[in-house]
Amino acid sequence: MTQTPLKWQSKTVLLAVLPYVCAALVVQVHFWILQDWAVAVWALGLSALLGVVVLALHAATQGGAATGFAISASVMFSTATVPYEPWRTGMMPILAVALLTHLATRLGRARKEELGIAEAKTGRKAAQVAANLGLAALAMSPVVQVLLADADWFPKSWLGTGVIFAMGLAALAEAAADTVSSEIGQVLGGTPRMITTLRAVEPGTDGAISVMGTLAGAGAAIVIAAVGTWALHGDRLLFAASVAGGVFGLFFDSVLGATLELRGKLNNDAVNFLSTVSAAGFAVGVLMGIAVVRGVWGR
User: Fold this and answer.
1) Mean pLDDT across 169-176
2) Which domain holds residue 136?
3) 30-46 mean pLDDT
4) pTM given for the model
5) What distance lies between CA 23 and its chain's CA centroid?
6) Is 213 part of a structural domain of the chain?
7) Is 140 inside any structural domain?
8) Side-chain half-sphere of 232: how many Cα atoms within 13 Å?
């Protein structure tokens, strides 16, 4: 498996996500303290608790846990509704992503260590967390909501539980699908094949897929979409678009891995971030297509 550090790409992903998320978090905390201080307490408290648990499980480094805290809290604020129920926010799909990916990573760890493809015991770094979860925070941010609310071309009736949440939820579904697919496929998938040539390769090769891994990844996308749709008071359209986006991003990730990553042009953090972007974009495309078919475009 070709491994070119390209650390600047990881730093770029981190810089694209963390400063904005932290700035938004400061504004959101100030807003909710004035509006309803309980929202601020729940969002910050639950996000901090998640960070502590992740650290205790060695699922992330201190930097990774701190980045996850900022992203989780920002998403909780962005999806808060009145009357406030903390379990009906973006925390639930993020928690589901954390749980699914942790279990998948732990499965067959001894075998993965023998093959030299096991995740580091220290857990995910800040850039890795930003690459997987950052797009969800950016997509659901207040700035994006304002921009779309003022866009003449946008189907106004689908704001909130439509396009905005679909982008974030599809990104989370892809993040879970990618990790679960890779981790399950390496243990139970048998001999993987390159997505571009179908040539048999060694487990852990960038761009390699297996039937079992792909099915596991699709299942993870469905779980995240279902949890998120329930938590965000969504409907069947939100669920369908999120699943479609997550699965599309899963295959897009493999194509990038088999081409640009394998050739040393992209590192894993860049591939993961771009894959979440593709998932969000595909989900938007699905909803736009349905809007056109139904004749509700621009309403």
Assistant:
1) 98
2) 7-294
3) 95
4) 0.93
5) 20
6) yes
7) yes
8) 34
Rounded to an integer, what distance in angstroms lies between the CA atom of residue 249 and that of residue 257? 12
CB 203 within 8 A of CB 183: no
User: What single-letter DSSP state applies at residue 259?
Assistant: I
CB-side neighbour CA atoms (13 Å) of 155: 21
pLDDT score, position 296: 57
Give the mean model confidence (pLDDT) for residues 214-220. Answer: 97
Taking phi over 0 as left and psi of -120 to 50 as alpha, with beta for the rest, 4 belongs to: beta
| 126 three-state secondary structure | helix
The maximal CA–CA distance of the chain, rounded, in angstroms, is 59
Q: How confident is the model at residue 154 (pLDDT cuts 50, 70, 90)?
A: low
The verdict on residue 1 lying in a domain is no
Instruction: Tell me whether residue 38 is in a domain.
Output: yes
Helices (H), the chain: 7-35, 37-56, 62-78, 91-106, 109-115, 126-139, 142-149, 163-188, 211-231, 236-256, 268-294
Please write the tens of the pLDDT for every residue from 109-130. 777 776 666 677 778 999 999 9
Our count of domains for the chain comes to 1
